[in-house]
Structures are given as C-alpha cells and as structure tokens.
Sequence to fold (294 residues):
Amino acid sequence: MADFIFIYAPEDSGRVRDVAEALAKRGITASTDRSIPAGQRYDVVMADRLQAAKAVVIVWSEAALRDPKLIDEAAAARDQGKAAPVRIAPVEPPLGFRQLQTADLSEWGRPSADSALHMLAAALIRARDGDAAAPVALARPVKPFVRTAKFWLFSLALALAIGALFFISPEVREALTADPSAMSRGTLLGLYLGVCFVLIALARLFLHLSRLVVGRTTKAYFSREFLIFMGAALIGAVAMGATGGFGSGAEDAPRASFLTGLASGLALLPLLISLGLLLFRGMRRLLLGRVKAD
Fold:
C-alpha cells in the first residue's frame, strides 16, 4: 500500500497525474490508482487504502463535488486526520471541509500554484516523517511579503541609515557650509531619505519577485538568501567606499569620500543585484519552459 494516495474524480485524472509528477520531483511518491480488483467490493478496498495511507490528497473540482462516493471517502480521510485537500478549479469545498486549509492549484503552472504545491509537499513530508498520530495539516498561506508592515518598516530603517551616511559625508557638510541658503538641512535630509527609500524598496521587491519566478515565497523575514544578498551588497559598498565610488576611474572626476562611496554602494548595489537576479531567473525559467515544450 502507498503512503500517499489521491482521491479524485475520473474527469480530473490528467491534472492529478501532473500534480503527482510534480510531487515525485520533490521526492514524494503518491498513488493515483483508483481501480478496484475484479471480484472485490469498492467500499472495502477504499477503506483498506485509506487505513494504510499516511496522508490522503483530496482533489476538489466541479466533478468531485458531484460525486457522493468521493465525498464519503474524503470524509473518512478527514475523520482519520489524514486529509490534505487541494483544489484544481475555483470551487469551494463541500460543507464539513471548509475548516481545513486547502492548497490552491487552480492556476497550474503559475507561481501561486507552485507555492501551494510546496505547501502540500511540506505537509506530506511531515506526515511521512513525523508523528503518525498527528493530523495532516497544511500551513496557512503566507501574507504577500510587500503587504507586510515589516517590509516597509525595514525598508525605511535601511533608507534612514543610508540617508544619514549621505548627510554626514564631507561633501554634503562642505556644500552646506559653503552656501547655507541653497537648501535647508531638513529638506536635504528628506530628499536623501526619499531617494534611498525608493531604491531600497525596489531592490527588496525585485528580490521577492525573483523568488516568485522560481516558485518560492519570502517566508522567513531574514532568510538565508536575503542575508547572502545583503552581505554581497555590503562588501561591494565597502569596496566602493574605499575606491571613491562609481566615478573614481575618470581622470577629471574628484575622488569621493569613503562615506559617500559607501552610501552610494548601499543605495545602488542592492537594486542592481536584485534586478540582475530577477532577469536571470526569469530568462532561465523562460528558456527551460521552451525546452520542455519542444
């Protein structure tokens, strides 16, 4: 008997095979076999399969909602704490199942479905490797990263730090001393903060979008990838500060101070790196998709 089985309507067999193949690539083997051996009773065979399974993937669709036998099987899986429901069409699960978190695979092939598939795979792995008596539980969907208060607050904190570096740099202090009437300190500081905030927010948005392109979501606020990304940007910014910034190679360009070079690197490098990562992942996904289609 298989550790994982699918419950689905016959009309959905094609999409169920797609889901099973996607799970197999993640090291999870789930049986799509719905056949009943000759001479055996349907209810007895299905009860044995449900009993032997560690988790049951219930596939909701228009056809599934019209099948009373399928709903009975799903109810048995739910009562045993083995239900891992998914939807492959924009439908509501029947009464008795709406309290269960359901993975949304209705937009198959898009990042949202990839994220839901990841959530399903994680639940099945927990069922396979964890406590057999614990019910299967799909994780709650993660709130979109750019809609969280942390996204904006942390972007603002970075902008404040970078803007402050610009503001206390020798070039700015010298300019304010030379012509105090040109622009007030508050206006200049606000201008620096605004520009830095836009650049940092765009950089973090591009990094988040690059993860969505490959079917991942930014779940951990300080994820390993984010820390590596910021570390690389910081190293580059320090190098820019030591060499005097972007314009230090020109013969007639004045050499910038360390603070100006550092602040310029911290403001611009994250944007450039994240944009490059987004373009790289997008092109790779596009090319791999074409290869598979051929």
User: Anything to note?
Assistant: Residues 145-293 form one domain. The longest strand covers residues 55-60. The two ends are 36 Å apart (CA to CA).
